[in-house]
Specification:
CATH topology: Rossmann fold
Number of strands: 5
CATH class: Alpha Beta
């Protein structure tokens, strides 16, 4: 609620003449759009299987809507497949829970309205690992701001600044550092 008195966040009333003569430039309002992120499978396993407490803030940002998690059918299928790997030893119920918790939070690139799909004319570089190309494609198709990954083949592309006009590739630690 806006009142007639001029009060700062501390609740103190400001001198009206000080407000009218202030010389500080106005700051633009930050976008009301949530940050659009693509998470690779390794990050998803950390967040939704092992609940890595170091990255809990990333999951919180997705689940509370501060970030819009973008994925594609191919990326989501890889996550579902990885959950069945014997080395994780996950019971079927745990696999389904991890998959469902993430799937309910995402926006699939195939469901975005055509107007939101601002696929750049810039061609994507080819990732050294062809299995990782789908994450680059999802980030581009979903107009992502970030691709959060711990995959070395994707991180090489970030170091070479090959995607500077499209989206950033960040490690989970770098994403956390921006919070």
């Amino acid at each position: 609620m806006i009142s007639d008195s001029s009060a700062d966040l501390s609740g103190q009333t400001a001198d009206p003449s000080a407000i009218s003569t202030a010389r500080k430039p106005l700051q633009p309002l930050q976008s009301l759009q949530p940050l659009r992120v693509v998470l690779d499978t390794n990050v998803l396993v950390s967040l939704y299987v092992f609940a890595d407490s170091r990255f809990a803030a990333l999951r919180d940002r997705i689940e509370n809507g501060q970030w819009c998690a973008i994925s594609s059918e191919a990326c989501l299928a890889e996550f579902e497949r990885v959950l069945t790997y014997p080395q994780f030893g996950l019971a079927c119920a745990v696999q389904q829970a991890a998959y469902s918790e993430y799937a309910r939070c995402i926006t699939l690139t195939s469901t975005l309205p055509a107007i939101e799909k601002t696929i750049s004319a810039s061609p994507l570089p080819h990732c050294r690992d062809p299995d990782d190309q789908k994450f680059l494609e999802a980030a581009q198709a979903g107009s992502a701001d970030w691709l959060v990954t711990s995959d070395k083949a994707l991180l090489v592309l970030a170091r070479r600044n090959r995607l500077r006009n499209l989206f950033q590739i960040l490690t989970p630690e770098a994403a956390l550092a921006t919070l």
